[in-house]
Design goal:
Layout lengths: L1 H29 L1 E3 L8 E4 L5 E5 L3 E6 L2 E9 L4 H13 L8 E5 L2 E5 L4 E2 H7 L5 H16 L12 E4 L2 E4 L13 H17 L8 H25 L1
Antiparallel strand pairs: 1-2, 3-4, 4-5, 5-7, 6-7, 8-9, 9-10
Length: 233
């Protein structure tokens, strides 16, 4: 009797996912995602009803369907070969509290476990305190990824979320790149040297345009430093 109940529940979950995959395929056919500038996030031109957009990254946009709150769909707008690397990264990571889970992949899209929470970027914007434990959670998640043979890259304030009091990395699309990346190290350094002694003690709201200026300034700083280091060789 117990096994019959498990089998019945499994069949329901399977049909649930199959129906969601069909809806996702339709979304994938209808959606148009533009890449106006290689240095800016991709931009969906249209979002078919009742889908909602959760956010945009350098390569892909993320959507959810209100009838399927446990999943999100990540659709690539450029650099689609990165989808296969992201799929392989999730396969290597398996189930870990510091990451999402990939349930399904197909041409141009992935279906992922939805992580509900707030990014570190939005925490700073809204004046919400970021506990030190969140930074430690990400450190542990990155160590785990390295132990699994991955090369964590492009981990920054928009790719890290606080969910149920835990830090989670929500984008692993660059975890197969072997190029060195200092984004998390620099963010971590800024947290302990600037954020923790000042903004954690006296939280204030910081406008997005200011955060965007800091982001562009950081990008320019890293390029300049890389250029200087190359000139010394």
């Amino acid at each position: 009797m117990h096994n019959d109940i498990i089998t019945e529940e499994y069949q329901k979950l399977r049909k649930h996912m199959e129906h969601f995959i069909q809806l996702t395929r339709q979304l994938n056919r209808e959606i148009i995602i533009e890449s106006r500038n290689p240095f800016d996030p991709v931009c969906p031109v249209n979002t078919p009803f009742p889908w909602k957009i959760l956010g945009c990254g350098n390569y892909a946009a993320v959507f959810y369907h209100p009838d399927y709150p446990l999943y999100v769909v990540k659709i690539y707008g450029r650099d689609e070969h990165g989808l296969l690397e992201e799929k392989k990264a999730y396969e290597r990571l398996g189930e870990h509290p510091g990451y999402s889970v990939c349930y399904y992949t197909e041409n141009r899209f992935l279906i992922l476990k939805r992580i509900e929470g707030i990014t570190l970027y939005d925490c700073v914007h809204k004046g919400i305190r970021i506990p030190e434990s969140i930074i430690r959670d990400i450190d542990k998640a990155l160590e785990y990824a390295e132990e699994r043979g991955l090369f964590p890259s492009d981990v920054h304030g928009k790719n890290v979320m606080i969910s149920k009091g835990k830090g989670i990395i929500v984008d692993v699309s660059d975890f197969y790149k072997k190029e060195p990346c200092r984004k998390w190290k620099d963010l971590r350094k800024a947290y302990f040297s600037i954020y923790k002694p000042v903004f954690y003690r006296f939280p204030i709201r910081i406008p997005y345009f200011v955060l965007n200026m800091i982001r562009m300034g950081y990008r320019y700083y890293r390029k300049l430093k890389l250029s200087i280091n190359k000139g010394k060789k």
